[in-house]
Amino acid sequence: MSEFLIKNGFVFDPLQGIKGDRMEIAVRDGKIVETGALRHPETIDASGMTVMGGGIDIHAHVVGPKVNVGRLFRPEDKLFKSPLKRCSRMEMGFSVPSTFKAGYDYARMGYVFVNEAAMPPLHSPHVHEEIRDTPIIDNAAMPVFANNWFTLEYLKNHEIENNAAYTAWLLRATRGFAIKAVNPGGTEAWGWGLNCENVHDPVPYFDITPAEIIKGLIETNEHLGLPHSVHLHCNNLGNPGNYTDTLDSLKLAEGYTPKNNFGREQVLHATHLQFHSYGGDSWGNFESRAPEVIDYVNSHDNITIDIGQVTLDETTTMTADGPFEHHLRALNNLKWANTDVELETAAGVVPYIYSPKVKVCTIQWAVGLELALLSKDLMRTFVSTDHPNAGPFTRYPRVITWLMSRAARDATMKTFKWLEKTIDATSIDSIDRELDLYEIAQMTRAGPAMALGISNTYGGLAPGMDADIAIYPLNPENMPSDPAEIEKAFSRCAWLLKDGVVTVRDGEVLTEPAKRTVWVDVNVPENAQVQRDIYEHFLRHYSVNLDNYSLFEEHLFNPRVIEVDTTQ
Amino acid sequence: MKTVILTMTNPPELYLEGQNITPDAFAGKTAAEIAAIDVWEGKLKSPLGKYFTVEGNGGATAADTKIILRGDCSRLKRVGQQMTAGEIVIEGDADMYIGGWMKGGKIHVKGNVDSFCGLAMEGGELIIDGNAGHHLGSSPRGEWRGMQGGVIRVAGSVGNDTATFMNGGTIIIGGDADIHVSTHAEGGTVIIKGNAKGRVGGQMVKGNIYVFGKIENPLPGFQHIGEVEEEVDGTKARFIHYIGDLGERHPVSRGKPVYGNIYTRV
C-alpha cells in the first residue's frame, strides 16, 4: 500500500474547474482520494510548482506496422541521435523513436495515455505487441473503418444496425478503441489509381460518397454509444484550397447529438486540422484559411479538433492516407514505402523536412497555431503534432511554449526566410493571445479525456480517478520571462506519478509501472446477416482464415476494458 | 601547432572504435588526459592508454592539434569521425569509417583503408596513399544526403559504391574503381584516373564523373553528345561527353534540363 500527499502545489484541473488553487492532492493505492483517507502518507513538496493530471495524447502514431516501417527504412533517423542508456532499455531515434524511447519520452513530459491513431485491423497483433513493448504509458488503438469493404457495403445500403454489429465485432477482434476514418473512400479509390478529393466524389465500384460514409459512421457511433466519437482525418489532406472540403466534411456532423454514458459531448473529432485548413489553388499562392475553419468549429459544439502543429523539424510522415503519401513522394523525391491492406486500408511512409527556409512550411507552422489561438473553447481544441507527421511528439513542450508566449513565436518567426510572405498569407502576426496554464491543461489533459470518453479515469485530479499526476517546475505566480524555460519545464517534469507510483523524478525515469491496453468491448444483439457476411468475405477475399484473424488473448497486454451494452 | 603521437603498443584483439581520436577531443588536454579518453573494443570501454602510448599534449584548439598514429592501426576504426579542424596522420593502414562525417581539417593515411571512409563528408581533406575499400565518400545507409563537400584523394584503387548520393565535393581516385560510382548523385565530382568497371552514374541527376581509362560496361541511360577539352586535376585532355541518367527525373534551370555528366578520355 502506498500513500502520497502532494502539498503546496498550484493545482490546475479543468475537469473540476480548479484554476491554480493551492491545494493538497492525496493518493492511495494508485487512486486519487480525499485527503482524510490517508494514514501515513509520504509527502511530496510541490511548492512553487504546477500540478496537473497526467497528459493525454489524443492522436499519435507510435505503435504498429507503419511506424515500424518508418523505423526500418530510416536508419539515419537514429544516427548520432540516441541518448546514452539511462533507463533499463535502449533509446533510439528522433522522429520514429524505438518503443522504449516513446514510452520514456512521454513519461518525461508528464503524459500517461496515448491513443494510437490508426490500426490496420489485419495487423492488430503487431499493434498490440508494440503496445506491450512501449513502457509506462497506457495505450488505446483505433482501427480504421472508412475504407473497409464491409463498412462501405453496409453504409451504401444504409444498414446502420448491420454496420454497428460489424463495428462491434471488429473492435473486439482487434481490441480496438474507437472508429477511425482516414480519407473516407479515397484510400479505397486509390486501388483504382484514383482519390476522393471532395466528400461528394463517388468511391469507384462501391458507388458511395465520402459524405455518406462519414454520416453513416457518425450514426453507427451514436447507435452504439461508444466512449469516443468518430475520429476523422478528412479528405484531400495537405493540398492548397482544401479548406472548403474540410468545411464540407465538418458540416456533415450538423444535426447529430452525442448519445453516450461517458461524458463525451462531440459526435465528430476532426484530427490534425492544420493539414486541412489551406487556401489558394497552388503552392505559389498557398495561404492560411484557419480563421474560417476554426470559426465554424467555434460555433458548432458537437465537434472537437486537434491541431497537428508543424514543428519545423525533419520528420517521417506516415498515414493510412495512401494516395496522399504517393502524392507527397512526387513533391519531395525522397524515399517512399507504401502498402495495401487487403479489404481494409492502405498506408504510406515518406520522410519530410519542414524547413524555416520554405514558405509553405512556415505557413503550415502558422496555420496550426492560428487554430489553437483563435479557438474559443480550448476544451474542444487539443495539442497534437500528428506525431510524427507534422513533427515528433517530443516537441509538445515547444508547441505549448509557442501557445503560451508571443515572444517565443516571434523568435521562431525571425528565423523564417519568407517572413513577409508568411505574415501576408496568415493572420499569425496579428494574434497577441497568450494561453495560460489552465488553458494548456484543457488542451493537453481535460479536453482530450472528455473527447475520448475516459474523463472518469484520466485527465484530472478528482477523487476516484487514476493517480496519474504530473508536477512541472513552473510557478504560475512567477512565470519565467525566458520562454525557453517553459519548454524545459514541460520537457522534463519534476515528478510524474503513474498509478500512484513515482515514475519520473527531475526528468529522469525511475521505474516502469505496469502499463495498460485500453479497449472498448461492445455487446450487440446477435446478427446472423453480419456473421454470414464476415464468414463469406473471409472465405472469398481475405488471405487469412477467420479463426486466425481475431487477436489471440496472449497478444493483449494488461487490458482495461470499457464495456458498452446496446442490448438493453 | 602541437603534436600528439599515439603509438599502438598493445593492439586490440577485436576492432577498436576510435571516434574519440580527433583533434576536437584532444584539444586542451595533456598527454595523461588524452590517455584517459574512452575507446571501445567490442562492447568493452577502456582508456586510450591501454592500447597506445601517448606523447605530447594537445593544442589549445582543434585547429592547433596534430595527431600522429604509429604502429599497427589496421584494426582501428572511425579515426577523425566528425572532426572539424586540425590534422591527423596515420603512418600505415587503418580500418573502416576513417574521416566519416568529417567537417574540416585534414587526415592523411599513408597505407590502405577499409570501407566507409569519408562517409557523408562535409568538408576538409582525406588523403589515402594506398587503396580504399567500398562506399568511399558515400552516404550513410538509408540517407539520401551523401558527401556534401571537401576532397578525398586516393592514390590506389577503390571498391564499389563510391560517392553514392554525392551532393558536392571532389573524389580523386588514382587507380581503378569497382562497380557503382556516383549512384543517385546530385552534384560533386568524381575523377577516376584508371578504369571503371560499370554502372557508373546510375540514377544520377547532377554532377560530373571523369574517367581517364575505360568504362567496361557503360549504362544505356547515358547519351553521347560530343567531345570537349578540359583540364582535370592538372591534366589537360580531350574527353567524350555523355549526359544522363535519362531514366531519372531532371530539374530545369534557366529553361534547360540539368543532367549528370560522364566524361571518358579520348
Automatic annotation (TrEMBL), chain A:
Pfam families xref list: Amidohydro_3
GO molecular function: formylmethanofuran dehydrogenase activity; hydrolase activity, acting on carbon-nitrogen (but not peptide) bonds
Entry's transmembrane regions: none
Residue ranges of every copy of the Amidohydrolase domain listed in the record: 42-509
Name by which UniProt lists this protein: Formylmethanofuran dehydrogenase subunit A
Top enzyme category: oxidoreductase
Keywords: Oxidoreductase
Superkingdom in the source lineage: Archaea
Oxidoreductase among keywords: yes
Family matches, as InterPro entries: Amidohydro_3, Formylmethanofuran_DH_asu, Metal-dep_hydrolase_composite, Metal_Hydrolase, Metallo-dep_Hydrolases_sf
EC number: 1.2.7.12
Automatic annotation (TrEMBL), chain B:
Reactions accelerated catalytically: N-formylmethanofuran + 2 oxidized [2Fe-2S]-[ferredoxin] + H2O = methanofuran + 2 reduced [2Fe-2S]-[ferredoxin] + CO2 + H(+)
First-tier enzyme category under EC: oxidoreductase
Domain of life of the organism encoding this protein: Archaea
Pathway assigned in UniProt: One-carbon metabolism; methanogenesis from CO(2); 5,10-methenyl-5,6,7,8-tetrahydromethanopterin from CO(2): step 1/3
SUPFAM superfamilies xrefs: Alpha subunit of glutamate synthase, C-terminal domain
Single GO BP term: methanogenesis
Listed InterPro entries: Formylmethanofuran_DH_suC (IPR017550), Glu_synth_asu_C_sf (IPR036485)
Keyword Oxidoreductase included in the entry's annotation: yes
GO molecular function, one term: formylmethanofuran dehydrogenase activity
Keywords linked to the UniProt accession: Oxidoreductase
EC number: 1.2.7.12
Claim: Oxidoreductase is one of the keywords in the record: yes
Full protein name: formylmethanofuran dehydrogenase
Organism: Methanoculleus receptaculi
